[in-house]
Each structure stands twice: as C-alpha cells, then as structure tokens.
C-alpha cells in the first residue's frame, strides 16, 4: 500500500510541478491510471490511495473486473483508451464514462446509435494519428474536420482530442500540434501524455494524462 501511495503522490507532484511551470492549475489535469492487464488485486491499492480515474484498453477485460471494483468503491470513472470495434459500441457506452478512441465514420455512427439507445453519452475524444503512422489507430489530421462534422450531425458531442506520438521521437511538437488542433476546433479536452512524457504533455496543454507504468510498475501479462 505504501509503495503504491508513494508512486501516486510522486506522479501527482510531477503533474503539479509541470502545471505550475506552464502557469496552469494542477486540478485542471485528470490523471488516468492505466490499469489494462492489471488484476483487481493490483488495482485496489491505488483505489485505497485515492485514485478514481482508470483506463482500460479492451471492453471485455474491463467488463470482467470493474463491476465488482465499482461496487466496492463508488465514484470511480472508467476511460476506454484502446481501439474500439463498432460492434462493441453498446457495451462501451454502458460501461465507460469516457471513450478516447473515436477515429472513424463507422464508429461515430455506432456510438451515436448506442448513446441514443442507452440514454447516456460518455465523454468522447477523437483519436488523431498525429504522426501519420500506418500501424496506429486514429484519424488523419486532414480528415479531422470531416469526422467532427459527422459526429455533430449524428448528435454525438465530442469533448476533445487524443493522440499517441510516435515512439522514440521528441513528443513536444506532436503535443503542441494536438493542442493547436483542439484549439482550432473549439474542443476543451486534450488527452495526451503517458508515463515517459506526461510532464511535457501537461506543459503543452494536456487535460488528461494516461499513466500506467509509473503507477503500477511493469505491465502484467
């Protein structure tokens, strides 16, 4: 418990320091603990230490472990940060409080129908393929205006943008570009930054940082 609480305090302190250097308020940044591949036993100490926002990559994995954890501790907010198949839209809308990976027309339509059916809408972020990498999800920068317009037409409210910069390259220019794109389209949310670069992301406008290894240690199998 103490190690977990110490790791959480350290990440929170680093976020606060980065925010202060950027003349921002630490309270404006949402720390998402990326709990994918970690079981309930690994997650409970973070909950006990006060963490309430958690991120998962897969609908099926989240559905298997989070109902029990949420029943134990009210107020947990669950974020889907991995790619979402259109046929899982109903389950995702029912389970998650935020979906960070809206990236294509078919998913916009599926989510709009699912939200209408459920009578609720999670926070929605459009994932942008900020480095134009073939192997990554996300819409192309050039396709972003059309996807946002389609979401609006479908009745889906988009709250922000999400991106994962290319690995092993200085992330700051990519974070700055995502911030500029969000500003251009009047979107308040910027979901960017992970364990290796969340301080840089905070200084460049991140509103949500997705931190796994720095909180949990090495990823589970």
Describe this structure in words.
By secondary structure, the chain is of the alpha/beta class. The protein has nine helices and eight strands. The chain has helices at 2-21, 40-48, 59-72, 89-95, 105-118, 144-154, 172-184, 198-203, 213-216; strands spanning 30-34, 53-56, 77-80, 98-102, 123-127, 160-162, 189-191, 208-211. Strands 7-6-5-4-3-2-1-8 form an eight-stranded parallel beta sheet. α6 links the parallel β5 and β6 (160-162). α4 (89-95) packs across α5 (105-118) and α5 (105-118) packs parallel to α6. The longest helix has 20 residues, at 2-21. It starts with a helix and ends in a 5-residue tail after the last helix. The relative contact order is 0.16. The model has no long low-confidence stretch (mean pLDDT 96).
Detail the topology: elements first, then pairings.
Elements: H1 2-21, E1 30-34, H2 40-48, E2 53-56, H3 59-72, E3 77-80, H4 89-95, E4 98-102, H5 105-118, E5 123-127, H6 144-154, E6 160-162, H7 172-184, E7 189-191, H8 198-203, E8 208-211, H9 213-216
Parallel strand pairs: 1-2, 1-8, 2-3, 3-4, 4-5, 5-6, 6-7
Helix pairs in contact: 4-5, 5-6
Strand order of the largest sheet: 7-6-5-4-3-2-1-8
Structural class: alpha/beta
What level of helicity do the residues show? 40-55%
Residues in β-strands, percent? 5-15%
Which key features would you list for this structure?
221 residues, alpha/beta, eight-stranded parallel beta sheet, 8 strands, globular
